Amino acid sequence: MLHRWRVITYMEIRAVFTMGCNIMMLEAMLLVFLMISLTICSTEGFQQQWPVPYKRFDFRPKTDPYCQARYTFCPSGFENGSIPKMKDEDIIDVYRLQAPVWEFKYGDLLGHFKIMHDAVGFRSSITGKNYTAEWYELFQLGNCTFPHLRPNMEEPFWCNQGAACFYEGIDDEHWKSNGTLVPVARMSGGMFNQMSKWLKEDNDTGIYYETWTVQEPTRAKPRVWFESYDCSKFVLRTYQKIWELGATFNKEIQTNYTRIFLYSGEPVYLGNVSSIFGPHGNKSLAEDIRMFYTPFRPPHSFKEFLISILAIYDEVVLHKTFYLFYNFEYWYLPMEYPYIKLTYEEIPLPSNKHV
C-alpha cells in the first residue's frame, strides 16, 4: 500500500512542476483525497434511499462576494441565460464535444489522465449558426470539491455552485485538437425549443456542483450511495431529454466520460450545518470536520503540499474515513479499498426508438 501511495504522489509532484507549481493542480488531480475520525450519529430505524436524490431548489440564489473565480464564468453566454428560438421546421444537428480539462491552457496534459470536460454542440441547417451548451463550476473545480475554512466562521464555507452556459459558436480548434467533435443526433427546431425550456428549468433548480460518485467497492452490482452532478451528467441529461422529445441518435458512436469515485461502506447521515455547527450543535463533530478539510487548503509552499498529501493519505487510507458534503448536509463514509479512483468509462447514447 505504501508503494501504491508513492506512485500517486510522484504523479502529483510531476503535475505540480509541469503546471508551474500552481495550486490549480489540486483542482485537476482529484486522485488522492479525504477525511478524519468522528462520532457517528445513528440511523437505526430510518429507511434511507440510495442513491441519495440530488436536491432541487425553487430558484438559484445570488452568489456570495467571497467566492471568486480564477476565470470568468460563461463570458460569452447570452444575456440572462436566454437561448435563441429556432424555426419549427429547422433541422438541428447535435454534436458530442469533449476536451481535456484546461485544454485552453495546458493542451492535452490532463487528457493523458483522462480528465475530460464534456459539452453539447448544436448547428442550425437554416441559419448555419453553431451553438454550445455546457455545465460547469462558477468558481472552478477546487472550490466545488473542497470548502474554505474562514477564521470568522465555525462551519466550512462552500463556493460550490454550478450552472449551464449557452453561447453562440463552437470552438472547433478547442474540441478537435485534443478531444472530440462528432455529430451524434438530429432533431427538429421545435424539439430544440422544447429542450431550451427544459434546460432553463434544469439550470434554475439544480444549483450546485458535486464532484464525487460514491459507491460500494467494485463488484457485480455495487450499490451507488451518491451520484455526481457535473458536466458529464449535464450532457447525459440533455441527451436523454432530446431523445424523449424524438431526436434520432447515431448509436454506433462510443461515448466515454470521466468519473471520480469514492468507495465506501454504507454512509451514515451526520446532520446539516445548523445541527452540527449551530449553537446547540455537536462541537466535537464540528471540529473533526474542520480538521478533516484542513489539508485541502491551498498550500503556500511545496513542503506544505507534501505534508497535506501525507495527512490526506493517513485519514482516507489508514483511518478509512471521509466526510462528504451533499445536499448541504454532511455524511460519514467508512472508506474501503480502492478508496478513490478515476475512470474513463463508456455510457452509451440513449436507445433509439425513433430510427
From TrEMBL:
Keywords: Glycoprotein
InterPro entries xref list: CLN5 (IPR026138)
Record GO terms (molecular function): hydrolase activity, acting on glycosyl bonds; palmitoyl-(protein) hydrolase activity
Reaction catalyzed: 2 1-tetradecanoyl-sn-glycero-3-phospho-(1'-sn-glycerol) = 1-tetradecanoyl-sn-glycero-3-phospho-(3'-tetradecanoyl-1'-sn-glycerol) + sn-glycero-3-phospho-(1'-sn-glycerol); S-hexadecanoyl-L-cysteinyl-[protein] + H2O = L-cysteinyl-[protein] + hexadecanoate + H(+); 2 1-octadecanoyl-sn-glycero-3-phospho-(1'-sn-glycerol) = 1-octadecanoyl-sn-glycero-3-phospho-(3'-octadecanoyl-1'-sn-glycerol) + sn-glycero-3-phospho-(1'-sn-glycerol); 2 1-hexadecanoyl-sn-glycero-3-phospho-(1'-sn-glycerol) = 1-hexadecanoyl-sn-glycero-3-phospho-(3'-hexadecanoyl-1'-sn-glycerol) + sn-glycero-3-phospho-(1'-sn-glycerol)
One matching Pfam family: CLN5
Family: Belongs to the CLN5 family.
TM annotation in the entry: none
Organism: Pelobates cultripes
Protein name, entry field: Bis(monoacylglycero)phosphate synthase CLN5
Gene Ontology biological process: lysosome organization
Its biological purpose: Exhibits palmitoyl protein thioesterase (S-depalmitoylation) activity in vitro and most likely plays a role in protein S-depalmitoylation. Catalyzes the synthesis of bis(monoacylglycero)phosphate (BMP) via transacylation of 2 molecules of lysophosphatidylglycerol (LPG). BMP also known as lysobisphosphatidic acid plays a key role in the formation of intraluminal vesicles and in maintaining intracellular cholesterol homeostasis. Can use only LPG as the exclusive lysophospholipid acyl donor for base exchange and displays BMP synthase activity towards various LPGs (LPG 14:0, LPG 16:0, LPG 18:0, LPG 18:1) with a higher preference for longer chain lengths.
Record's GO cellular component terms: lysosomal membrane
